[in-house]
Amino acid sequence: MTFETQQQALRYVAEFELDWPMLVDVERTIYRAYGLEPRASIWNLFRPTFWPRYLGLMLGGRRVRKPTGDVYQLGGNVLIDPGGIVRLHRNSSNPLDRPSPEQILCVIQGSQNSSSVLREGEAPAEPNGEIE
Amino acid sequence: MMSQDYATTTDPPFRASSDMTNLEGQPAPSFSVTDTRGKVHCLENYRGRWVMLVMHRHLA
Fold it and tell me: Which residues does chain A have within 8 Å of residue B34's beta carbon, measured at their own beta carbons?
C-alpha cells in the first residue's frame, strides 16, 4: 500500500516487478486507521547507524531519487488472521524498522497452533448455552 | 475505465493516540481501496485467508 499517486505507484510496481496488488491510499485514510501518522524526525530518517544499510542498498544497485512524497510518513506492517483479527502490528519507528520474515512466520505458526484463530471455512465456536 | 481512486473505511474516524497505535488482538479496521490496476479490494473479501498489509514510506 502506498500514499503516493497512481502514477508513482505504477512506476514502482513496474520497477520492482511486484506480483501482489499495490493499493493506493492517497488520502491516507487507511494509514490513519492503522495508527500511521506522519511523525518521523530527521534524526529517525538519517541517523548514522543507518548509513551502512543505505550504502549497501546503493552499492547493490538501488537508485537514489529525490523523494516525491511526504518523507515524514513512515510505513508499517499489519498481519491479519483468517478471522479478521490483527496478529502482528508494527508501525515503523524508522525506515529500517520492519518485522523479519521469520518473525512473521512465527506469528502465523503460533496462531495456527492455538484454537483462537478461525481457519478457512471454519465457523466460530457456538456457546454451549449453559449458564452457571 | 478505472474506478475512482480513493480509499474508504467503514469504521468510525480513527483518532491516533498512544493507546491505539497497536491493534494486536483487535478486529482489523475494514477498508475498501483501489489498486494500481483499478481493482477494488475490500478487507472482508479476504476472510478465511491471512493478509499482510505492507504500508510503504515514500516510493522514491
Answer: 23-24
pLDDT in tens, A61-107: 877 777 777 878 888 999 999 999 999 999 988 888 899 999 999 99
Report strand pairing: B40-42 vs A86-91.
unpaired
Does the pTM exceed 0.95? no
For B39, which of A1, A21, A71 is closest by C-beta distance?
A21
| Structure ipTM over 0.90, yes or no | no
Query: How many CB atoms are located within 10 Å of the residue B24 CB?
Result: 13
Please provide the distance, in angstroms rounded to a whole number, between the alpha carbons at the two ends of chain B. Answer: 27
- Residue-by-residue DSSP string for B12-37: PPP---TTSS--TTSBPPP-EEEBTT
